[in-house]
Amino acid sequence: MRRPRGTPGARAVLAAALLLVGGVLLSCVTPSGQDSGGKSATAGPLLAPAESGAPAVLVLVTISGLTPDLHTLGGPMPTLAALAEAGVAAERVESVVPASSYPVHASLVTGVEPAAHGVLGDRRIGPVGLLRERPFDAALLLRPPLWQVLQESGVAVASLDWPTTQGAAVTALLPDGEPLSRSETWLDVLAPTATPWLLGRAREAPVAAHRAGPARDRLLVDAGCHMLGQPAAPRLLLMRLRGSELSLRGSGVGTVATRAAFAALDGELRRLVDCIGEGPHARRSALVVAGDRAYRPVHSALRPNRVLADAGLIGPDDEPWQALARSAGGSAFVYARGADEALVARAALDEEAATTRAFRVVSAQEMIAQAADPEAWFGLEAAPGFVFLDGQRGPRVAAAAQRSAAGYLEDHGPGPAFVAWGRGFRRGLVVPSLHQLDVAPTLGRLLAAELPGAQGRGLIGLLRVPAGTAAPARQAAP
Q1: pLDDT over threshold 80, residue 298
Q2: What's the DSSP call for residue 394?
Q3: How do strand 172-174 and strand 157-160 relate by DSSP bridges?
Q4: C-alpha distances in Å from residue 184, one per residue of 130, 188, 199
Q5: Cα separation of 455 and 438, whole Å?
Q6: 8 pLDDT more than 80
Q7: DSSP string across 90-115
Q8: Contact 275, 228 (CB under 8 A)
Q9: CB–CB of 377/332 below 8 Å?
Q10: 408: closest CA among 243, 298, 300, 321?
Q11: Whether the predicted model's global pTM rises above the 0.70 cut
């Protein structure tokens, strides 16, 4: 919970945080706590004008595992804390189901549940089991994402490592993707669909950038800064930063290493803010930073597919499965060839749940209420401290190699973060609650881009944009 505005302590800490941003941010808080719009001693070139209007450039950044407690005053992310204090910040964000990276990112740009946009997990299901392949291909999206709506209207869009964008028809693209074999490299994955100049930057980057982590984050921010510095910057820039993932999984939530990882990501945000402020669109830009999912501490791992294999529903690797569980971390979803196989799977997993008391079986009715995968016969939810694995080899319950996981159905702690700042957004606004489905319709309303069939709400109360206002279409820089 952030401290109330207007108290001497909050103003002092905010002033220090604003200075850390490099003189680019403008504190919009007066001694009386009112929205003033006047310049202060720390004011720099980046200032969202007092008048309403749509941004000429909107940057949407996701950070893996980002939660609101990380951008409190005095936390490891002073840049984001300053943006949250001066702009719009949500106290609670409700996640889609499953709360996995690919389904979440697809919902953030379509405004519909995973069951509607078709990206239902971080791994795809094949005839003989789960595939190593992630849902990389943009053609998998069954509903038009915000970037497609804008691009088809003649507005330039850039996407940097955003999930499910391989082959996306955007002006500048560095798609997501990871090698599927030892003979393949990250550059091999990018080459077929990446924009040539972005592929060239990836080729020149250190080898460390070939894996998700700080080096890749630096590459992405460098590329974003290049585009933001051009007169013809993209209208929408999408970017995913994942430098926190390894620490969250390997070290855990709230550890020194994880706080350091988020501090490093805050440094990348500061670079983005500086690039916006020093560029030609400083007074006409907006920045949105969102967490994709919230991680919880874990100690033990569960293998539901081992249970199904022991029940004769999963055979050798080259044989078709009869029932299969796909993990989302703190939850899993069970698929079956037919009703008979589903009944056998349910009985086996009911017995395992009663024996271990480490998870519960989620009924089809509850799955429907959660808008979960309609192809699954039922679901599983791990108890706090437990995580589901996809593999079928090894013990049914074992010590978890990872220290935290996301994807739980119940709210066991803070949800993902949401912070918005700049042209078109209100100042000093605390939002008690919003849903991840609300993000795309709200940004669409800000950019005068209608998302057909969106299930989320366009939250006009977050915006300072008259109805029908739209900035002119732009072309992306080379």
Answers
A1: yes
A2: S
A3: parallel
A4: 20, 6, 16
A5: 8
A6: no
A7: ES-EEPPSS--HHHHHHHHHH-S-HH
A8: yes
A9: no
A10: 298
A11: yes
Which tens digits make up the pLDDT trace of 390-439?
999 999 999 999 999 999 998 777 899 999 999 999 999 999 999 999 99
Q: What is the pLDDT of residues 156-179, one digit of tens each?
A: 999 999 999 999 999 999 999 999
442/446 Cα distance (integer angstroms): 6
Cα(83)–Cα(17) distance, rounded to whole angstroms?
A: 10
Half-sphere CA count of 319, side-chain side, radius 13 A: 9
Beta strand pairing status for 157-160 and 236-241?
parallel
Cα torsion angle, 346, 351, 356, 362, sign: positive
CA distances from 207 to 186, 212, 213, 250, 337 (A): 10, 11, 11, 21, 43
Q: Enter the DSSP assignment of 3.
A: P
- For 147-156, the pLDDT digits (tens) are 999 999 999 9
Does the 1-294+415-478 domain belong in CATH 3.40.720.10? yes
Radius of gyration of the chain (CA): 22
Fold topology of 298-405: Gyrase A; domain 2 (3.30.1360)
SS3 465: coil
> In the 3-class helix/strand/coil scheme, how is 16-78 assigned residue by residue?
HHHHHCCCCCCCCECCCCCECCCCCCCCCCCCCCCCCCCCCEEEEEEECCCCHHHHCCCCCCH
Question: Any idea where the domains of the chain sit in the sequence?
Answer: 1-294+415-478, 298-405
Q: CA-CA distance, 45 to 157, in Å (whole number)?
A: 24
